[in-house]
UniProtKB/TrEMBL annotation, chain A:
Biological role: Oxidoreductase that catalyzes the last step in proline biosynthesis, which corresponds to the reduction of pyrroline-5-carboxylate (P5C) to L-proline using NAD(P)H. Proline is synthesized from either glutamate or ornithine; both are converted to P5C, and then to proline via pyrroline-5-carboxylate reductases (PYCRs). PYCR3 is exclusively linked to the biosynthesis of proline from ornithine.
Pyrroline-5-carboxylate reductase catalytic N-terminal domain segment(s): 6-99
The name this protein goes by in its record: Pyrroline-5-carboxylate reductase
Residues holding NADPH: 57
TrEMBL record, chain B:
Alphabetical list of NCBIfam families matching this protein: proC
Keyword list, A-Z: Amino-acid biosynthesis, NADP, Oxidoreductase, Proline biosynthesis
Broadest EC class assigned to this enzyme: oxidoreductase
Pyrroline-5-carboxylate reductase catalytic N-terminal domain location: 6-87
Entry keyword annotation includes rRNA processing: no
InterPro entries: 6-PGluconate_DH-like_C_sf, NAD(P)-bd_dom_sf, P5C_Rdtase_cat_N, P5CR-like_CS, P5CR_dimer, Pyrroline-COOH_reductase
PANTHER family to which the protein is assigned, alphabetical: PYRROLINE-5-CARBOXYLATE REDUCTASE (PTHR11645), PYRROLINE-5-CARBOXYLATE REDUCTASE 3 (PTHR11645:SF0)
Catalytic activity line of the entry: L-proline + NADP(+) = (S)-1-pyrroline-5-carboxylate + NADPH + 2 H(+); L-proline + NAD(+) = (S)-1-pyrroline-5-carboxylate + NADH + 2 H(+)
Family stated for the protein in its record: Belongs to the pyrroline-5-carboxylate reductase family.
Protein name: Pyrroline-5-carboxylate reductase
SUPFAM superfamilies the UniProt entry points to: 6-phosphogluconate dehydrogenase C-terminal domain-like, NAD(P)-binding Rossmann-fold domains
Amino acid sequence: MDSQLKIGFIGAGNMAFGIAKGILTGNVLPVNVKVSAPSSRNLGRFQELGIPITHSNIEVVCGSDVVFVAVKPHLVSLVLNEISQHVTDRHIIVSVAAGVTLSTLEELLPENSVAIRLMPNLPCLVQEGALLFARGSHAKQEDGALLRSLLHRCGLVEEGPESWIDIHTGLSGSGVAFVYLFAEALAEGAVKMGMPSALAHSIASQTVLGAGRLLRDSGKHPAQLRSEVCTPGGTTIYGLHTLEQGGVRASTMSAVESATERARELGRKSAARK
Amino acid sequence: MDSQLKIGFIGAGNMAFGIAKGILTGDNIPPIGFQELGIPITHSNIEVVCGSDVVFVAVKPHLVSLVLNEISQHVTDRHIIVSVAAGVTLSTLEELLPENSVAIRLMPNLPCLVQEGALLFARGSHAKQEDGALLRSLLHRCGLVEEGPESWIDIHTGLSGSGVAFVYLFAEALAEGAVKMGMPSALAHSIASQTVLGAGRLLRDSGKHPAQLRSEVCTPGGTTIYGLHTLEQGGVRASTMSAVESATERARELGRNASKVTPKVDYSCGCGYCNHNKMHSNSILGTFIEGHVSLQA
């Protein structure tokens, strides 16, 4: 990847920051990154990384090859309208805005613009994100490959058709909060059994992290791993039976379903508003 | 910590290996065996004990009394014996070891294998605070290390021993929800496990209460709060608490059953090949071949 590549961020929230951190751990120099935001509130942590800041979105676009549009969804059309005349065919515009479709993006940008829609998740902040992107009609495979190489330090990066973005939102965007709920419940079970709360929460979160590591790095199906740890008549199978009796599996599937359907609904609403 | 400290392992299964990896300083140890790590091996438990200051007893629970009977006369007051065997109480350990032996009971969990374990230990009656501190310093690269009264060990078993499998089930269900929505299975599983790992990292490193973190990610009317409502409607929180409860109660039950059994050990199995204290050579170091030694209760 060209180490002289210039990367710009419009918007300076958590997602922009997480992605910027990941990009810098590759071979992109801070001086080749620029970020803009209307207020200085969120710019401090970018400055600490050595990244130049500005209040001008246009300055970011003119000085960058790849531009991440990381503003709240309702601000996207505003921002794109503002920068549109400065977008050329050498730019790659990557939108991180939930619910804003490629079709909307391409409408707001000049004809033949290269647009990519990216759905990251919060753990990008600690370089353990799960990111899915979908290429717009003029984004070629090489543009996808470039994005992938920029983002690979942020976590797991995958490509797919746009229809998978809403599913990814439900599974891995909202999924993070589902895991928080599960971890909290594990801890509270231990508190009921007599363990002090702070310790229980600490152990529960370490357990979730450790199990996630094993699961991700083993490459095995979770059911396979589960069988491997069930001593006959042991504590684990007793606990698993309780989870099954409570229908945890079905409810969890339903949670991903609800979140995905809400993502689809929000996408339809924003398309209808155009 | 004294870098000349000698550490011994009786038993060479996953737990022993995970702990050994953590003890050896240096990160990013590739997935290789004890020998590739440069650790000397032997088939003699007694050799391990005589040559070590800290001895991890990492054999299956039903083999513990066998092993302790075998090594007992070689255990001195300078040894620290750390048992990793589920359900074997400190009282049992101290009965099988010489008087005044320093015994510690340790409950690790499987992610020790990747240096992200959750470990809880309880000190025996002659184990002093410094012994606990020494163990803590040995284990800190294995993951989170905490100390507590013995009564917390069963809870730790339910929460973080079995808890690993509960997380696997949850991750599988997340993936299957995505598959129902139209994502291919392999990708869904891959993203689900990364999501669990990432969320666990954020949770552990933030130091905030999970409910606080949850609130921070709920956009009003957004996808997350819709999904969370579904989890609540399904009573996932209650079932998960109950799972920890079931596993903990089973651990307590197993502990009670084990202490009722005082095995008189018969060394000879009558197979014609083994006799007192001699082991068959086999692929698992330091343990007797299961089925070749009988325990008489």
